[in-house]
Each structure stands twice: as C-alpha cells, then as structure tokens.
Amino acid sequence: MNIHPAAENRHAPAALLDALAARFAERFSLNAAQREAHGRDESWHIPAAPDGVFYPECTEEVAEAVKLCRAHKTPIIAFGAGTSLEGQVAAPSGGISFDFSRMNRVLAVNAEDLDVRVGAGVTRKQLNEELRDKGLFFPVDPGANATLGGMAATRASGTNAVRYGTMRENVLSLKAVTAAGEVIETGGRARKSAAGYDMTHLLIGSEGTLGLITELSLKLYGVPEAMAAAVCAFADIEGAVASVIETIQCGLPVARIEILDALQVRACNAYSKLSLPEQPMLFLEFHGSAKSVEEQAAEFGEIASAHGGSGFDWAVKAEDRNRLWEARHNAYYAARALAPGKNGMVTDVCVPISQLARCIRETRADLDASSILAPLVGHVGDGNFHTIMLIDPDDAGEVAEAKRLHDRMVTRALALGGTSTGEHGIGSGKQAFLAEEHGDTLPLMRAVKQALDPENLLNPGKLAGI
Amino acid sequence: MNIHPAAENRHAPAALLDALAARFAERFSLNAAQREAHGRDESWHIPAAPDGVFYPECTEEVAEAVKLCRAHKTPIIAFGAGTSLEGQVAAPSGGISFDFSRMNRVLAVNAEDLDVRVGAGVTRKQLNEELRDKGLFFPVDPGANATLGGMAATRASGTNAVRYGTMRENVLSLKAVTAAGEVIETGGRARKSAAGYDMTHLLIGSEGTLGLITELSLKLYGVPEAMAAAVCAFADIEGAVASVIETIQCGLPVARIEILDALQVRACNAYSKLSLPEQPMLFLEFHGSAKSVEEQAAEFGEIASAHGGSGFDWAVKAEDRNRLWEARHNAYYAARALAPGKNGMVTDVCVPISQLARCIRETRADLDASSILAPLVGHVGDGNFHTIMLIDPDDAGEVAEAKRLHDRMVTRALALGGTSTGEHGIGSGKQAFLAEEHGDTLPLMRAVKQALDPENLLNPGKLAGI
C-alpha cells in the first residue's frame, strides 16, 4: 500500500487530540482502521490517513471542533461517503477528518415549495426513499450513494443532469461553518435572489477548502406521471454519439442518455448478470406524461434508426428500469472487476455537444492503440464522458502510460472548448489541469481561498493547491 | 436636482483625465451632460456624476484604462444601459464610468451547442433580433432593454425566469477585467464543469464590484413551435395569487405568469392604450408544441375558473402577444405616468411560493392604508413581486412613509423565508437590507471584495458597502 509521503511528517498536536476526545468521547476516534478508511476515496490516488476522525451530530459541534482545530493550527478535512474520485478526502498533511454520517436527518420537506432541508450526511438514496410517498424526488444522481453535502462540495452531477441540472442548479442554500468556526447560511428559500455575492455557488464545488457544509436546502421535483427506460445498440460508437447529438440538438427532453462502449457493456454483463449485445449502447430514460413518454421514445427510435441503432426497446416497469440503472450505476465497479487487483484511473472530460463525436472518436482511438484496458462510459447528453483506465498503481510503466493518455484526453477536451472535469472535481488529482484550464483565474481562486481561510486549515493542498 | 453629498468632494486627478483623453481621444468624455447621464439609473436614488466617461471598444482597452485608473487610485464604475434600479451606476466617490455601449457585437452564434458569445454592451433586444432567423432566442427578459453585461452584473431576471431561469442559470462563462487590469475568462463552453471555484457565479450579481464584465457566453433556446399569450381578470388579488400558486405547484410549465393589480392595470390602460378591465389580472405565456400550448392553456383556464378568474382569453398571433407584453414591459413607465413629476421607489421582494398569497395580501393592505399611490406588479411564478411607490424625492414626509412601507415589506418577506431583492440587486439602495438578510455572510462577502479589489476601486461603496 502506498502511503502519501507527507502523511508521516505532520501530526495533530496531542493536546488537540486530547481536547477532542475529552469533549466528544467515542465520537472522536484515533482508531487506525477508521483513520485509514477516512484517508481514501474510490480513486487510484494515494491515500493519506488523518490523525483522527470526528463524527459531529450538529452544526454547533462542527463549529466547536473547527475552533479547536484552529487553535492548534490543524487541518480539517470534510468526509461524506468517501466516494470522491480525485483524492478529495485524503489528509496528506494530517489533520482531523469530519465525518458527516451522523448528520443524516431530513429536516423539513416543503412539498408546496418543492424544496427540502437536509443534514449534510443524508445520502441521495436515503433522501429519495424518504420522499417516495410524497410523490417528489431529488434528481442529481452521480451513481455512487454519495452524501448530499459531499455532492454539493464536489459540484456532483451524473445521469439526470441533462434534464434536471447538476448540484450547481439544485442547491438553494447551504449552512456552513467557516474556517473561523462561524456558522453561516448562504441563501434562503426564495427561488431567486439578487442579494449580494453568490456565496452558495462559491461553496458548491469548493471541495471543503472554503467551508464545511453542514445543512442544505435543495430543489425537488414531482415524480413524473410516467417513466420509461430504453436501451439501444449501435454498430459503432460514432452512430451512438451521432444519435445523442441529434437528440440534444432537436430539443428532445430526455431525462437520461448514457453511452457505454462495447468493453463497458461486456463488463456490465459480467458484473450485473445481464445479456446485452456487446456493442456500443445507449441507455436512456424518458420522463413525462404517458403520452409524452411514448412520443419521446418514438422520436428517439427514429433518430437511432437513422444512425444504425438496433434492438431499440423500452421498459416502463419499475423493476426493469431499476435493473438497467443499477447496472449503469455499477459501471465503475464492473469496469474494475474486468481486471481484479488493478485500480481504476477515472477520467472525466466534458465538451460542447458539437465536439463530442470528435472527442470520443479520438479518445477511443488513443485507448485502442494502448496496452491499457479502458472502458468508456458517460453522461453524453451533457457532453461529459469518462474512461476507466485499469492500472496497477505500483507499476510505474502503467501509471506513466495512463497519465500520458489522460493528458492527451484533457488537452483534447480543452482544445475543443471543454473542461478538464465535468463532475469529479480537482482534488489532488487534477491540479495541473486546473492550472492549464484556468491559469488566468487561478490567482483569483487563490486570493479567495486566502481571504476565507487565511490559515489554510480547510482541506489544505487540494483544489487551488494552497 | 439632488446631488450626492460625496460627489463634490472627490475628483479624479487631472493627470488621469489627461492620460485617458490622450489615449482614447473622443472616446473619453468630460462633457457635463454625458457625465450627468452616466451617474443616474432609472431609480429614485440620488444620482452622482462620474468625473469622466470612457467608451471602450474591446477588452484590451478596458484593461488598459483600468490600469490607468488604478495608477491614479480612481474609482471605476461599469455602465451598461443605465436601467438599474438600486443606484448601481452612480459615482458617489467620483471616478470614471466605463460605458460598454460600443462593445455591442454578437461575436459567435453556436447553433449546434445552443450558445452565443456577445460583447457586454449587446442588449437583450438586439441579441434576439440577431437570433431571429436562426430559430433561437435568449430568454432572460427584465423588461428594460438592458445590456447583457449589466444583466449579468445585477443577476437580472424578469418575466421568463419561471420557465428558463435568471442570468444565474443562463451564463456559461464571462470574460472580465480584474481590479488589477488582468483579463480573465471564468468558464468554458461545456455545459457543466467541476473545475475549481465558480468564478462565473461570483461575478454574476457582483454589480461591478469584483470585475468588469466585457464578454459573455450565454445559453440559447430553440424558439418554441407555438406560443400563446393570455390574460385573465380576477375579482380580487387573492384569486389571482391562488391561481399562480396552484399553477406552479401542479408543475404546469408556464413560460410567463405575471400579476398586475387593479391600479397597475389602470396605469397600463392609460399608458399603452389598452382597454383591460381594471381588476387584478394575470398575464401569461405558454410555450411548446401547438398541442401542448393548447393543453396548458386549457389546464390554466380550469385553475383560474376555480379561483374566480374570468374573461380568460388567449392569443396566438404574434402581434397580439407583442402588444400585451409591450404593455407589461412598460408597466414601470406606466406606473410613473400615473403621477407625473413624481419618481418611483421600486421594491422587489421574493418569497417561497407557499408564502406568496400572505406576503402580497399583507403588503397590499399596508399600501392601501397609506397615502402613497403604489401599483403592484410581479413575476409571481417565482414568488417575486414589486410595488412602485410614487413619491416626490424632495418631500421628506413622502420619502419617510415610502421607506416605512418598504421596510415592512422586506421584513415581512425575510420573515417568510424570502429575500430582500429577487432581481434588482443591492446597489446603494438595499445595503441595510443586505446586512439584515445576510449579516452572517457579509463578513465573507467583504473578505472576497477585499481579496479581489484590495484598493477598493471597482464601484466602491456599492453592494457590500466597502
């Protein structure tokens, strides 16, 4: 197991560990297994355990513990479900991991206003289970059962974003604790406001470096009258992508439109016991009235046929839909199961839809010419896709080759007007790309970080690299 | 004419005025009438003329002039069309007004990606005229023919926001000049990104206090196959509001749903030569397929009937729609024409939709009990409404009474979970309310301002009050 080189060099002072233990008893842990579990996410990045793990139960406790950490100049790392993919939760400079799993209550459902208030540790699946009998749902769905606090902190997205937007579009307000241990509320429950700087969006995507999110007000949506899932196989990936582009450009309001290349389909068949044809495929979902869903499916069917799509079939039964999306959500785990013992270097570019075909074609060609096994999958309705490069992190040759492919992929996406990360964030894994993409705004980002966290205690070293 | 008390006390150094004149010739003006015109917006707030007006033609010129101003520690005030409503463009500490009217080119229409690149001085009407033959449109519509740069700077909104969102949801990226005179681009053309702090949203709504917006990438939408406008009169304002709430809560995707109280209808009839019944009314617009528009109109008709709506009628002809919306857009001017010689103190609260009926009812009762004439109008689908209090700014009694009513209205909106401004912003007019609404985040806002504009040269004194 790799250990981050800096992790051994810095430890929280014993006085802080003693103070946290005295104040929070069993909710502050120095247990090695817990520390180790909190220093790693689901990525290939080198883990680094924090010095201790704190399980707050309310915002006031978070504020109190932040003040203690601050008094001892000790780093503070927010931890949701540990499902991040760019090393966001690792503690390379040591510090205290704040695990929000006990702040997991749905605090208020305002059905009339289509909004909800939750603790940061509520997961997206938990929220949707609690909303089920109210005919409402929260759409943002990154696949993993992440916490909503973590999803806001990484500006998460996923399969429904093409229709409902990402966390950027679906957070009304955040309660957070600042680096000084002050409690703030960034917005209100009004659907719009022009009152001052947009501190809500400043915290969304800040990856725990500007404040600790403790509660969220989120937008909700009525469960559509009808939903239908569909799969469609294509002779080649170009036909699948062309169908996506045409679907988006003609304004068809698909709720989900996901690509899986042949290798990813093979992985899903094996992992989720499906028997899909091992060809490039699109997974779709349509939401609306029964009639509208039927119309959308028919319209998509025509588009797909014109691009060589075959076996187009759609399922309205909830169990069939769920089986399909469960398989899609497990795509990452399925990909990793293709090469047991290896890790997955996950990439995440997003380009304007007009550039998607070229970006995917050139990326797939790069991968095919390499020795690395790498399924391709993505939320292509947004122009967003991933490859999962299966590598042994201890094999310097494989790591170098994956990095080379990754560099080429990001450089290509940026040249096409896209971004180095559609939804996974920067963490420690994409800092060089952040500098490449936003070199001109990076000094401002660092100025904002310096202004809000002058002692650099909040997830230090991540995102803007301070 | 009132002159802001501070305006006489500070002037830009002659050396700066000379340098700007030498460099930009006739595009830098010291003309008194131009200065005076650039120190006022459409509000009742006390105007304050800048020391000079600069008309840049490109971003590089903006950067150059910012560096000159900075060298002379002179304030810089961005000016779009001067249609702001909270004193945003006044120069109470003197300085140079940067008028973006010459940066008025549509730079690139990317129809395939449904986005457009514009200079900050392009107005919303100009953009939509240039898009007309492409079957695309930009939806954000604050009524006034504001510039898109100004609309982004004030986080503008308006009649279409209930369906298409505000500037917050419709800007993909901004080119801006920082206080240091550096040129930045805050985003890209990808539909989503998780790359670093959200500098785009930090600039949206910052009212020229964090940077000068020079270009924008905006989302576009396909012109709907069919559009229909409708009007519906109600016996009382409660019935109109109840219809709005039910329309939103049942998910009917209205494109516009606007309230006008009886007094505002009287004003519009007189100003726009209409003959609407002088009762509370809703103005609506439906977008979609011909069939969907028909269904939406029918569904709304049922809701309205149940709440005492009458005379519900809908118009699909473009000329009839335009006449109606022209009248709605001129509501502010129509209101002011009710009391020639008076000015309008415009209010702008926004509450969760479940609180809208109570907020409007109590506000209208307050106004009815006062001597001040004040029509009520609003984008009620968002929970956002305005009163236009017709006062003589030189009559201390009227000003005091209007302020009392305004205070009560904002306090009420905040108590109901709303905001002190849905779309007009803070400027100099709402600073006390910003402190009331966001007292906890105000220190962070000020820290951000200090970090990005350490010498306090960008629209000083506005928004966060530094």
Automatic annotation (TrEMBL), chains A, B:
<dbReference type="Pfam" id="PF02913">
    <property type="entry name" value="FAD-oxidase_C"/>
</dbReference>
<dbReference type="GO" id="GO:1903457">
    <property type="term" value="P:lactate catabolic process"/>
</dbReference>
<feature type="domain" description="FAD-binding PCMH-type">
    <location>
        <begin position="46"/>
        <end position="223"/>
    </location>
</feature>
<dbReference type="Pfam" id="PF01565">
    <property type="entry name" value="FAD_binding_4"/>
</dbReference>
<keyword id="KW-0274">FAD</keyword>
<comment type="similarity">
    <text>Belongs to the FAD-binding oxidoreductase/transferase type 4 family.</text>
</comment>
<dbReference type="InterPro" id="IPR016171">
    <property type="entry name" value="Vanillyl_alc_oxidase_C-sub2"/>
</dbReference>
<dbReference type="InterPro" id="IPR016166">
    <property type="entry name" value="FAD-bd_PCMH"/>
</dbReference>
<keyword id="KW-0560">Oxidoreductase</keyword>
<dbReference type="GO" id="GO:0004458">
    <property type="term" value="F:D-lactate dehydrogenase (cytochrome) activity"/>
</dbReference>
<dbReference type="InterPro" id="IPR036318">
    <property type="entry name" value="FAD-bd_PCMH-like_sf"/>
</dbReference>
<dbReference type="GO" id="GO:0071949">
    <property type="term" value="F:FAD binding"/>
</dbReference>
<dbReference type="InterPro" id="IPR006094">
    <property type="entry name" value="Oxid_FAD_bind_N"/>
</dbReference>
<dbReference type="GO" id="GO:0008720">
    <property type="term" value="F:D-lactate dehydrogenase (NAD+) activity"/>
</dbReference>
<dbReference type="InterPro" id="IPR016164">
    <property type="entry name" value="FAD-linked_Oxase-like_C"/>
</dbReference>
<keyword id="KW-0809">Transit peptide</keyword>
<keyword id="KW-0285">Flavoprotein</keyword>
<dbReference type="InterPro" id="IPR004113">
    <property type="entry name" value="FAD-bd_oxidored_4_C"/>
</dbReference>
<protein>
    <recommendedName>
        <fullName>D-lactate dehydrogenase (cytochrome)</fullName>
        <ecNumber>1.1.2.4</ecNumber>
    </recommendedName>
</protein>
<dbReference type="InterPro" id="IPR016169">
    <property type="entry name" value="FAD-bd_PCMH_sub2"/>
</dbReference>
